[in-house]
Amino acid sequence: MMLTVAMPKGRIFTEALVLLKQAGYDIPDDLEHSRKLMIDVPNEQLRFILAKPMDVVTYVEHGVADVGIAGKDVLLEEERDVYEMLDLRISPCYLAVAGLPNTCVHPIAPRVATKYPNIASTYFREQGEQVEIIKLNGSVELAPLIGLAERIVDIVSTGRTLKENGLIELERIVHVTSRFIVNPVSYRMQDRAIEHMVDRLTYAIEKAGESNEN
Amino acid sequence: MRVFMFEKPLGMRDTLPDVYKTKRALREAMMEEIETWGYSFIETPTLEYDETVGKASAILDQQLFKLLDREGHTLVLRPDMTAPIARLAASKLYEEGCPLRLAYAANVFRAQQREGGRPAEFEQVGVEYIGDGTMYADAEVISLMIFALKRAGLCDFTVTIGHIGYVDALFFDVLRQEQRVETLRRFLYEKNYVGYREHVKSLSLSSIDRDRLLRLLTLRGGGEVIAEAKTYATTEAEQRALDELEQLWTYVDQYGVTDMVKLDMSLVSHMSYYTGVLFEVYAKNVGFLLGNGGRYDGLLAKFHRPSPATGFSVRLDRLMEAIGEQRRTEKTTCIIFSQERFAEAYAKATEMRQKGENVVLQHVAGIQNMDQFTASFDDVVYVLGKRGKDER
């Protein structure tokens, strides 16, 4: 029986592919550069679908993909009903609040621009601060520069984008890595195949961990 | 804007003829099986008070449809059938003596918070078995669910059983405080195994206790899991829960359905509702839970009649998705008549209907497009003009 794997296009994809290869999966090299959105690898009994990172969890929750690879940021934002089985320890970064140096927060209606409205509103609520969230779909760093919002909540990996735009990190919210997620029905109906995949990935993660330490 | 008034509220769906037939066939198959086990079907109102049934229900508050009655009381569209049946059992039926075996096939309502793809009104078929705290009751409910699904024609499905009493006993023994137990339980409820493992590793525990908590995630499989869990059980409460599961497994085996059943000691379907054995059922080709159930010994007490109880519910919409529209719909004949031969046409229709056949009786003048209309029937009989002419 074939397992359908939802993969995030972009940043995480390359690292996820390396990990899968380390786990012993025989995956063709042209996968990364293909324009196809659905690719079968029959000798491994796998079908890959390539989706936007934010959409991977949706495909897996609805069961059209059995398993998937998604960032913890997406899992926190979307709160989907899926199993979070493994921390793949790839694509490490963190979510942070950032703004211009000497940011003055608007006294009545502080505004926060972000791609993660759910995470941002939960975070500020927990801090006891009421803010107005403005949802953006990218280039969030622009918002404080142009006066759309005083602060932003976004992913930071090296901090270079912030720096080049003259922004500074104000608070760290949460550390983020990619996770191996599983649809709740597939988890039961395809338990053998999924357990096998989890074992192979666990082995690859440990091996990667060892080589990082050396 | 012109078409807006014909839209339906989010998650509300129409049922067209073919789907209706399939749905009815599935419902009836399940109902027949449930009735042969001696359960009585009942109906309860669609609207209930939020104060009673709304609060007692296992469904989250933000998923309830609420409205106000003329006196300003908050009403809810029933989000499940268990709470209304508990209300009914506690107030009216209790005098009849326990145990009670009740069943239902009814629509329930749950508001959608996110995108479409999920109905906000759907039908559930299920049973409630009230007043019997023995493991025979749990085994009966699980087995009946399996038999009813098989009767409906479902083949490829699996039932996963857990025991919340075991999870709680283990967590309490290690963590000692309700709040810490709840934090850990939430990771399992949210299916966040990464978070669970990280949290356990962050607690200051003896290595034995840490292993006990981590091992919980691996206690999955057949009957052998109970024996494995028993070798690690240190408290009486853990032991008691495992004894119950062991009994359950033996009884379910008597029903001959253990090949459909698996155990998962880490199963947590709800944060607080269930009190003992709980289970979920999954089917191939459906991404979401097909049905679930379990022991809810705390619910009847909310209606001032403490009593053990267990039950299951299966979602008919998802069952239909799992089975597909493979059922053959019966054939329908159309008799097209003209005025002078109406009596003859009606007599023919009656004769066929009495034999159980489906017959449409249609006056020829009422048809606008003859080809299009007749194409939807398996057979067409023309009773037109003077007798003896144009037959068929």
From TrEMBL, chain A:
* Biological processes annotated in GO: L-histidine biosynthetic process
Q: What is its EC number?
A: 2.4.2.17
* One term under GO cellular component: cytoplasm
**What domain of life does the UniProt record list for this protein's source?**
Bacteria
Catalyses:
1-(5-phospho-beta-D-ribosyl)-ATP + diphosphate = 5-phospho-alpha-D-ribose 1-diphosphate + ATP
Keyword check for Glycosyltransferase: yes
tRNA-binding as UniProt keyword:
no
Q: Which residues form a coiled coil?
A: none
Q: Where is the ATP phosphoribosyltransferase catalytic domain?
A: 52-201
Task: State the InterPro entries in the record.
Answer: ATP_PRibTrfase_cat (IPR013820), ATP_PRibTrfase_CS (IPR018198), ATP_PRibTrfase_HisG (IPR001348), ATP_PRibTrfase_HisG_short (IPR024893)
Molecular functions (GO terms): ATP binding; ATP phosphoribosyltransferase activity
The principal localisation class reads: cytoplasm
Instruction: Show the HAMAP family listed in the entry.
Output: HisG_Short (MF_01018)
Assigned protein family = Belongs to the ATP phosphoribosyltransferase family. Short subfamily.
PANTHER family (alphabetical): ATP PHOSPHORIBOSYLTRANSFERASE (PTHR21403:SF8), ATP PHOSPHORIBOSYLTRANSFERASE ATP-PRTASE (PTHR21403)
Report the NCBIfam families cross-referenced here: hisG
Protein name listed in UniProt: ATP phosphoribosyltransferase
Taxonomic source organism = Anoxybacillus thermarum
* Gene name in the database record: hisG
Automatic annotation (TrEMBL), chain B:
Q: Which UniProt keywords apply?
A: Amino-acid biosynthesis, Cytoplasm, Glycosyltransferase, Histidine biosynthesis, Transferase
Q: Where in the cell is it found?
A: Cytoplasm
What is the protein's given name?
A: ATP phosphoribosyltransferase regulatory subunit
Q: What else is known?
A: This function is generally fulfilled by the C-terminal part of HisG, which is missing in some bacteria such as this one.
Q: Name one Pfam family in it.
A: tRNA-synt_His
Can you name one GO molecular function term for this protein?
glycosyltransferase activity
Residues engaged in binding L-histidine = D80, M81, T82, R110, Q124, E128, Y273, Y274
* Organism encoding this protein: Anoxybacillus thermarum
Assembly notes: Heteromultimer composed of HisG and HisZ subunits.
